[in-house]
Each structure stands twice: as structure tokens, then as C-alpha cells.
Amino acid sequence: MTSSVFSRATGLHDRLDRHWLVADALLRRLYGEVPALEGWLSQVREAVIRAARNRTAALADLDARRQAETDWFQRPNQLGYCFYVDRFAGTLAGVRRRLDYLAELGVTYLHPLPLLAMQSGDNDGGFAVADYRSVEPRLGTAEDLRALAEDAHQAGMALCLDVVCNHTARDHAWAQAARAGDPVYRAYYHVLDSADEVAAYEATLGQVFPKTAPGNFTPEPSLARDGGGAWVWTTFYPYQWDLNYANPAVFLEMLDVLLHLANQGVDVFRLDSTPFLWKAPGTSCRGLPQTHWIVQAWRALLAIAAPGVLLKGEAIVDPDDVVSFFGRDEATGRPAANECHLAYNNGMMTALWLAQATGDATPAHALLDRLAGRPRQAAWITYVRCHDDIIWDALAALIPAETLHRVSAFYAGALPGSYAMGAAFQADGGGAPSTNGMAASLVGLRPEGRPGEADTDAALARLLQLYQVTLALDGLPVLYMGDEIALTNAPLASVPAGEGRWLHRPAMDWDRAALRGGDTAAGRCHAALRRLIQVRAGLPALHGAEPARPLTGLPSGVLGFERVGTRPLLCLANLTSGTVTLSLPIGPAGRDVVAEEDTDLAALSLGPWQARWIEVRP
């Protein structure tokens, strides 16, 4: 046995000793009443060991480096980039050809949105998966995915992939078998046999798409038994069937999917719709304890087979609940890093947009306090925009409904004085409609040739302010495709009826990107963002371990927080259209690390929509 093979075998043995007991305890808690449990647990253990032994030498080496540097994803040089493959570069091969463009920007974390084989026709932008082990043919092949992972690793980038773990497409092989009458696969899904059962569940459930896909169940006669009815659980769209994780076979199937994709070179799994995995009558069926046990078990098992791989929770829930997806200590109930390594900081993203619309930083400061309980070993995904709508009701626990409705109307351009060019989306139960639109359009940037060119300076200032604040928050910041060149909304004619989210899913404008070195809106935005990214990479205070702490005593129109380090860093942002002068009782002097100039903290000036990073000197 060679030394490297011996080392890998020893490492696997050590990881089994460390993590199997954790996984075993969680799985017994979930499935302790299931017949033949011991045999099933043996299958789980064998699957993990087999995957570990099949891991390539290159991936095992990457695992070893990340085990030696467990904070790699929290370091200030980390930067993500999120995009739809077809909108960005056509195919996976096209993405590989664009890696140099991303490397120039400073990208170290690549997140192509759903690219696994998807249902034909309506597929929720790829979130209706027909085959977890195949790539959507129009985007490429499984070999193209492996090649992208290899090229990304060579370029110093980690590859993140969406795994839609809550549901499959109606035409997934499991669902097809269920519709054909196979009871084994019928049990892979939540199927109710009576309208009364449906009504009992609906009484406590919310709705995700109340206008375009109301309700949580869809009649499916092909699943009926003994001449009765059948309703399949469909939290999202009728063609997305929710998986039944009370069935241990489903857990093992999805574990196999994760292990398979990890061995293709995937570094991070975005677990789509994480809160919905477990269902129980009389509850909201969101974020139940069993959901957390499932994800914790996946983490422990992946730590055995692929210890360099991370889990990212997509949990758009109340700010007080989202921290729970990092994990909790069983004994104390306090946050602990035993579940998702990463989670979306949707609350702060939404609060920043709200702050710009209202000119009031108070809610954002309050939210920073509430989110500071994150475990130090985990990190937020921070972002300005993403492929989804901005859901104002995500802040309903913090913000009066009247304010949320007003902000929604502001970004739809429906209030006097609004500069925004967004569009209202649907709302659940009379809540505030959410907002669609690219970041550049929401801050008021007009496409070339449209009225309002005089607002370009203010619009770019607002966009760059949002990014400068986001880059200074604790976490791994992710740019949404096109924001670096201030790309505006997709043409309205290209937005499908009833699915307004395609407004902020335009095709990448490579002609515009080619102007990134010039004095255009695209060039100015790109240059300013590159500067921020480069400066951020050299600031130890922006390491993701320590939370951002809100500053007190500021005017309501100024957002401010501190990042602690050997040289503390202040992030300050003026949310108003006028100049503000601050007197900060922190020290006699500071340095604006972006402008590279000394500042007087007793008379610190912030121009309209300006953000500044101030390093505090002793």
C-alpha cells in the first residue's frame, strides 16, 4: 500500500470514528420505528464508505487542504458569482470559456443555477428536476459538468450546485413509476386519499405562489387507490411533487445523489427549499425539528465521504428562525455549526433595499443585532440580488405591514418620487407584494436611449452603496450575473405571463461587458466593484467569523456597523440624497481604505448615497 493510499484509508477510518455516531443517532431518531432499521443503516454506511473510496486523488487532496483550513469559505478574498448557464454563456462549455472574465473580477465561488436534467415545458427555471444524475441536454453533459469543476478548481474557484431536495418533477422516473401504479414509488411522495385530509393540512399551511399556483395539493387520479381520489403534495407548482422524507428510502436516494455529485467535483450544495422537507399535521410544515435532523445527518455523512464539501441552506424564513439552519447544540439549545455551513442572509438583503427606499437604517440595525447569534464557524451568503423576487413579508416580524406595502409600491414605481423600475409580484394572504427587477433597474438606472439619463450618477451611487455594504457584512458575498456591469431588466416582451421573475433573468450583455474598461455606466460600475473586491481581499477585519455589529448614535438616515479585527473597520452608508457629516466618538483618526486617504472621525463627511470603509487607528 502506497503512503498516499494508506493516508486516505487512515483518514476515512478517522472520519468514520468521528462522524458515524452522530449520523447514526440522528437517523435512529428519524427512523427508529421503521422495520429492518439495522439493515437500512448498514446500507447508508456502505454507501458513504463506497463514495469515499471512489473519490479521485485530486478531490481527496482538495478535501485535505480544506480540512487544514476550515475557514477557507469565510476569508475576505472569497467572492461568489451566480448565474443561469444559458443566460450567461449558453452551455457549460461556454461557462468554461468565460472563467477568465470571472477570475478578472475576483470570483472564487461559482454558482450556476439549476442545470440538472429538468422537466420539459414548465420547469420553474430548472427547479423541477427530472434526473439528478444527468445534465440538462441543451446545457451540456455530465462530462461537461466534471470538466467545469476541474477547470474551476484550477482557477481557484469552488463550484456550487443546486440540489432540489424537497421535490422532483412530475416526470421524474420515481413519479412516473408512481403514476404507473408502483406502490414503492408512490410512497416516495406525499399522497393524500381524501379531500378532508387535504383541507385539514391546508388549514395550517401558507402558500408560496398564491396567485399562479394556489394551494399545496394537486389532484392526481393516476395515484388513486380502490376507486377513491388522490392528491399529491405540491408546495410550489403542480408539476413539482414533494418528497416524503418519512420514508427512509427517500433519504437514502437523496444521500446517493449528494455523494454522486460530490464525486463529480461539486464543492457546495445549495439545498433548495430546505425548510419544507418534513411534513406533520397541524403545523406550518416549515422548519420542523425533523428537517434539521435530516440536514445534520447529510452533513455528518458527507463529512465522512467528502469532507471538503459544504452545505448551503436556502431558508427564506423569519430572521430569528434562519440562524437555526446553521444547527443547534442539543444540550444547551444554543446555535452550533453542525448543520449548514452557509445560509442566505435574506433578511439583510431585504432590509438594505428597504433602507434605501425609506431613508431609515433603524430596521437594518435591529436586524444586525438579531442575526449576530450565528456560530463563528458558519457564514452567511450575503447578496444584493438573486434569481428570485424580493419578499418584503420576510420582514413582517420586524416591520409594520403598512411600511412593507409602501416599499413594495416604491420599487414598482407606483409612488410619487420613486426612481425604481421594478414590478410587483404576488403576495400570500394579503401581504405586501414582492418585487421583481434587476438591481440596476431597482436603483433607477435607465437603459441606454430611455429617458432619465441624468439620473445615472445617483443610480450608480445607490447600486455601489448596496454592494459596498454587502461586501462588508460577515459572510461570503455573491454577485448576481450582470450586476457588475449594471445590467438592467430583461425586455418585458420576453417575460412569460404569470412568471414575472424572468424580469431579472436577462441574457448577459457581452457587448456591454466589453465596455467595462470605459467611461460608460457599465465601465464605471465594473471598475468601482473591482476596486471594492480587491480592497476587501486585503482586510482581515472582513473575515467572516466575527459578526457585523451595528453602531449606535447615528442619524436614522445613516447605516453603520463595525467589523472587529486587529484594525477594526467601520462601514458607513448615507441613505439620503443630501450630504451628512458625522462625529464618531471612536478615535481621533481613521483611514478610508478605498479612497486611500486619512479621515477625521470627528467630522466625517458622507455624500449622497455614499458608503465608506474606515479603518480605525489606535
What this model shows, in words?
The protein has 618 residues and is α/β, with parallel strands linked by helices. The chain is built from 20 helices and 25 strands. Strands 1-2-5-11-12-13-14-17 form an eight-stranded parallel β-barrel. Strands 18-19-20-25-22-23 form a six-stranded antiparallel sheet, covered by helices on one side. Strand 22 (589-592) and strand 23 (597-600) form a beta hairpin. The mean pLDDT is 94.
Quick summary:
The protein contains 20 helices and 25 strands. With 618 residues, the chain is of the alpha/beta class.
Itemize the secondary structure elements and their pairings.
Layout: H1 3-31, H2 37-54, H3 57-68, E1 80-83, H4 85-89, H5 92-97, H6 99-105, E2 109-112, E3 116-118, E4 129-135, H7 142-154, E5 158-163, E6 167-169, H8 173-179, H9 183-186, E7 191-192, H10 195-202, E8 217-219, E9 231-233, E10 240-242, H11 248-262, E11 268-271, H12 289-305, E12 310-313, H13 319-322, E13 342-344, H14 346-358, H15 362-371, E14 379-383, H16 401-411, E15 423-424, E16 435-436, H17 439-442, H18 456-472, E17 476-480, H19 510-513, H20 521-537, E18 549-550, E19 558-563, E20 569-574, E21 580-582, E22 589-592, E23 597-600, E24 604-606, E25 611-616
Parallel strand pairs: 1-2, 1-17, 2-5, 5-11, 11-12, 12-13, 13-14, 14-17
Antiparallel strand pairs: 3-4, 6-10, 7-9, 8-9, 15-16, 18-19, 19-20, 20-25, 21-24, 22-23, 22-25
Helix pairs in contact: 1-2, 1-12, 2-11, 2-12, 11-12, 14-15, 18-20
